[in-house]
Design brief:
This protein has 210 residues and is mainly alpha-helical. The protein is 79% helix and 7% strand. It has a domain at 59-102 and 114-201. A two-stranded antiparallel sheet has the order 1-2.
Length: 210
């Protein structure tokens, strides 16, 4: 109802603000990982090289920040929260379905049951795309060395999967939701219509100028 909507509109920005502040505070520490060191080249000109600071080579920093905190913030906490949210949605849908007596409502709810499935797919995709980066940090935390080439491949592959995770959700929603497809197609048609109108007006203006 209106009261619930008003309450949601009040605490939602606060939660978002807390998340933004927490993320900024967590990542700002990494600015102390490297420092620019002035070096003199044999040809007598100055170079600046990025070198790890004492903080970056600190065993406590690597174990606590790069290991445990990264694992908690990037994998375990998001997974737990998304899992709880998914079970909550499934529970509410089942509860609503049990109370419903109209056939039309039951049909609509069957369509809505795809949402938890999509959310589960997003969770699995998130874990699959972040497990490599998590392993890299765990290996670093436990001082497991696979070799320079293997370490570089794991890091690059982990970064690639993070990029995939950022873009693959679009295809998950596209393949699972008819409404999402319709909305995206509508936006695309609007863009093409506006683009054609702009091109047409530009062409007419050019003809009139000539």
């Amino acid at each position: 109802g209106p009261a619930a909507f008003g309450s949601r509109s009040t605490w939602a920005p606060r939660v978002l603000a807390c998340v933004v502040v927490s993320v900024a505070a967590y990542n700002i520490v990494q600015f102390g990982d490297l420092e620019a060191v002035e070096c003199l080249h044999p040809d007598n000109y100055t170079l600046y090289e990025l070198c790890p600071t004492e903080l970056r080579v600190s065993e406590t920093y690597i174990v606590v920040y790069k290991g445990y905190m990264y694992a908690l913030s990037m994998a375990f906490i998001p997974f737990i929260l998304l899992t709880i949210l998914t079970f909550g949605i499934v529970y509410l849908l089942r509860k609503k379905q049990e109370k419903s007596k109209k056939v039309l409502c039951e049909c609509e709810e069957k369509d809505d049951q795809g949402s938890p499935v999509v959310l589960l797919l997003v969770i699995v995709l998130f874990l699959a795309c972040n497990v490599t980066s998590l392993l890299v940090n765990v290996f670093e935390m436990l001082k497991i060395r696979l070799g320079p080439a293997a370490d570089a491949i794991l890091i690059d592959f982990g970064n690639f999967l993070v990029v995939v995770n950022a873009t693959a959700n679009f295809f998950v929603y596209w393949g699972s939701s008819l409404e999402y497809k319709t909305a995206v197609r509508g936006l695309f048609r609007k863009y093409l219509t506006r683009r054609k109108a702009i091109d047409l007006s530009t062409t007419q203006a050019s003809v009139e100028y000539v």
